[in-house]
């Protein structure tokens, strides 16, 4: 009888919590409470641009204040840890780079959070190829010339990224393996900071989302050697693909989405997912993204996105196998 009473109490408590969660989800979002979208990079880069573009459209559609909070540093660990410890109520969201986030467990023996269990996927937003760019004064002007130069000067070519395990770092590691060259990785807090050193010639190459180097490529301050997609990009129509430039085995695409803290009620995740789908279908937003080589690629559901993030961890571990990581 005592066990039955405990079961009844447990079942009753669970029902009360479920009803409370449902009631909270039905009133979500409250107009008086802004939603914070945390970006784990410094302002000015491609990820920051994407976050602000979607935040603006979501805010308009939902009649809700959505604020972008930049929390850069420690290869996204600072931002990710903030999210992992945030209240799972739908008012704190996370702009998550699939490859970068997946690299955290491969690069760190200990983390203050679990990269999968402490996050609840909402939806992917975009996928994008990268552009390989070098300073105007740097001798190579084609991808073949760059590979030849790097082979002739092993260890003399530095490439910048937004942090260890960041998408830009992974792209450089993959390039080194495919092209058979030795390059030095230089990490920054954000791509916008790395691009400053690229323009100054302090680093020699970057593998980056086109949005960041595009103005400098258009002004002639940087040379675009290739794009890492199967097709040329409309805004860089004169730039060959890696296959056209002589490196057909090198293709690289990055994906960026939105997650929430684990435990966020499923109705809230579904609400956010539906709002993201609606925002992504806006012609003006889509065009703004396409102008920067970001192609809308939303997930079928929050569950599907969470499954993809989980599967991505193994892929990144394989990519980083054998890579020397300083301090480990």
Task: Describe this structure as you would to a colleague.
- This protein has 328 residues and is an alpha/beta fold.
- It folds into two domains: 32-127 and 254-320, D-Maltodextrin-Binding Protein, domain 2 (3-Layer(aba) Sandwich), CATH 3.40.190.150; 131-251, 3-Layer(aba) Sandwich (D-Maltodextrin-Binding Protein, domain 2).
- Helices cover 43% and strands 19% of the residues.
- It has helices spanning 2-26, 46-62, 77-84, 98-107, 143-152, 167-179, 191-200, 214-219, 266-280, 283-290, 302-320; strands spanning 35-39, 66-70, 92-97, 119-129, 131-135, 157-161, 183-187, 205-208, 222-227, 253-261, 295-296.
- Strands 2-1-3-10-4-11 form a six-stranded mixed sheet, sandwiched between helices. A five-stranded mixed sheet has the order 7-6-8-5-9, sandwiched between helices.
- Helix 2 packs across helix 9 (266-280).
- It is globular, with a radius of gyration of 22 Å.
- The mean pLDDT is 90.
The percentage helix is: 40-55%
Strand content: 15-25%
Number of domains: 2
The CATH superfamily label of the largest domain reads: Bordetella uptake gene, domain 1
Q: Which blocks of ≥5 consecutive residues have pLDDT under 50?
A: none
Total number of strands:
11
Shape: globular
Structural topology:
Layout: H1 2-26, E1 35-39, H2 46-62, E2 66-70, H3 77-84, E3 92-97, H4 98-107, E4 119-129, E5 131-135, H5 143-152, E6 157-161, H6 167-179, E7 183-187, H7 191-200, E8 205-208, H8 214-219, E9 222-227, E10 253-261, H9 266-280, H10 283-290, E11 295-296, H11 302-320
Parallel strand pairs: 1-2, 1-3, 6-7, 6-8
Antiparallel strand pairs: 3-10, 4-10, 4-11, 5-8, 5-9
Helix pairs in contact: 2-9, 4-11
């Amino acid at each position: 009888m005592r066990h039955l009473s405990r079961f009844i109490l447990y079942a009753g408590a669970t029902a009360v919590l479920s009803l409370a969660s449902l009631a909270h989800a039905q009133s979500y979002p409250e107009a008086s409470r802004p939603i914070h979208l945390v970006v784990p990079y410094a302002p000015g880069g491609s990820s920051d641009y994407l976050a602000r573009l979607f935040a603006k459209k979501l805010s308009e559609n939902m009649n809700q204040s959505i604020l972008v909070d930049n929390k850069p540093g420690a290869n996204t660990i600072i931002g990710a840890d903030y999210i992992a410890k945030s209240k799972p109520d739908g008012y704190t969201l996370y702009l998550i780079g699939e490859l970068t986030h997946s690299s955290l467990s491969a690069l760190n023996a200990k983390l203050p959070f679990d990269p999968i269990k402490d996050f609840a996927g909402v939806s992917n937003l975009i996928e994008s190829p990268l552009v390989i760019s070098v300073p105007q004064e740097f001798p190579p002007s084609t991808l073949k010339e760059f590979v030849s130069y790097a082979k002739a000067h092993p260890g003399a070519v530095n490439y910048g990224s937004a942090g260890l395990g960041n998408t830009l770092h992974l792209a450089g590691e993959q390039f080194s393996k495919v092209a058979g060259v030795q390059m030095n990785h230089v990490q920054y807090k954000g791509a916008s900071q790395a691009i400053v050193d690229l323009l100054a010639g302090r680093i020699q190459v970057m593998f980056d989302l086109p949005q960041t180097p595009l103005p400098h490529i258009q002004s002639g301050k940087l040379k675009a050697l290739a794009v890492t997609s199967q097709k040329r990009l409309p805004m860089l129509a004169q730039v060959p693909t890696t296959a056209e430039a002589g490196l057909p085995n090198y293709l690289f695409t990055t994906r960026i989405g939105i997650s929430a803290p684990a435990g966020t009620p499923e109705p809230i995740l579904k609400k956010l997912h539906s709002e993201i789908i609606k925002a992504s279908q806006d012609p003006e937003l889509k065009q703004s993204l396409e102008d920067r080589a970001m192609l809308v690629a939303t997930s079928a559901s929050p569950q599907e996105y969470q499954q993809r993030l989980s599967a991505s961890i193994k892929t990144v571990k394989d990519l980083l196998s054998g890579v020397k990581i300083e301090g480990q």
